[in-house]
Amino acid sequence: MMLGAWCREDRLGRRLVVILQGLPCAWGKCRFCPFAMEQGVRLGEVIERNRGIIREAERLIDGCGAQRVSIFNGSSFYELPYETVSRLRRLTEGRVVDIESRPEYLTLETLEATLEALGAELLVVRVGVEVWDDRLRNDYLGKGISREEIERLSRLRLEARDRGLPVQLVAYVLFGIEGIPEEKVVESVRELNRRFDGVIAVRYHRYADWMPAEAPVSSRLKELLEREALLVDWGEEPDWIIAGRSPGSSKPSRGP
Q1: Which of 135, 168, 129, 167 lies closest to 150 in space, CA to CA?
Q2: Which of 42, 127, 159, 238 is the most buried (most CB within 10 A)?
Q3: Cα–Cα distance between 245 and 189 in angstroms, integer?
Q4: Model-level pTM?
């Protein structure tokens, strides 16, 4: 399983990555997302599993020498059980903290409350916009994120800055997926870089038969992404096994 904690060093620095188990995503309609395969439906079991993951993260954090903690749960951070969130401060206080969220959870009030709960030096909220083109984003990928919401988030990051909140909003851009031409990926990177504090480009991988096919990635696009994105996540580490399935395979993997 991908759930767990490990140290990683990349363009964002040396950081601790913590993958918690989430409850089912309230939206749950994205046709490329495999994370439902690892979500739990019994609250008590999710809480207990996350306690174990957080204990492991606490054992790693000091040895990691990490001043950044990236917390993911396969849906929005705000859909985690409160009991899980309340245990995170030991990991996050005084550090840069990455979380993920859909736009509807993000307001000045929720950002302030999250900063207070985590004690973060800087809160970086990653939003899965995926592609700038409205039709591709909503009709093809099923994201359910309007252009108006994207523009609202762009204004929100400026409002947070004006209020003196140490918050950044970063957009995900998906690439290497059938149905999204490379010119649309380039457009997405450039448009979203103008409206957010940066872009993280994520290489799409197919984990199940119902998901779209993967598409080849040209050297030209690779070069552009490495130049213009904060981070390019190729998703090729051996840790990225979701519900026993390896990237690019719809069949369970024996895995490491």
Answers
A1: 129
A2: 127
A3: 29
A4: 0.93
| DSSP reduced 3-state for 52 | helix
Strand 122-130 with 231-233, pairing: unpaired
Token output for 70: 């990236």
C-alpha to C-alpha distance for 188 and 199, rounded to whole angstroms: 9
Give the pair of three-digit tokens for residue 256: 């490491």
Closest CA to 179 of 139, 146, 235, 210: 139
pLDDT tens readout for residues 48-72: 999 999 999 999 998 999 999 999 9
Secondary structure (H, E, C), 157-197: HHHHHHCCCCEEEEEEEEECECCCCHHHHHHHHHHHHHHCC
- Identify the burial level of 166 via C-beta atoms within 10 angstroms of its C-beta, where 0-12 means exposed, 13-18 middle and 19 or more buried: middle
Nearest to 173 by CA among 220, 149, 209, 141: 141
| Distances from the Cα of 36 to the Cα of 26, 75, 169, 176, 190, angstroms | 11, 9, 24, 21, 30
- pLDDT for the residue numbered 253: 37
Kindly give the residue spans of alpha helices, DSSP state H, lying in the chain.
43-64, 82-85, 89-92, 108-118, 134, 147-162, 182-195, 219-228
Each domain of the chain, given as residue ranges in start order, spans 4-171
| Residue listed under structure tokens 């204004």 | 155
* Mean pLDDT score of the chain: 92
Q: Is the pLDDT of residue 194 over 70?
A: yes
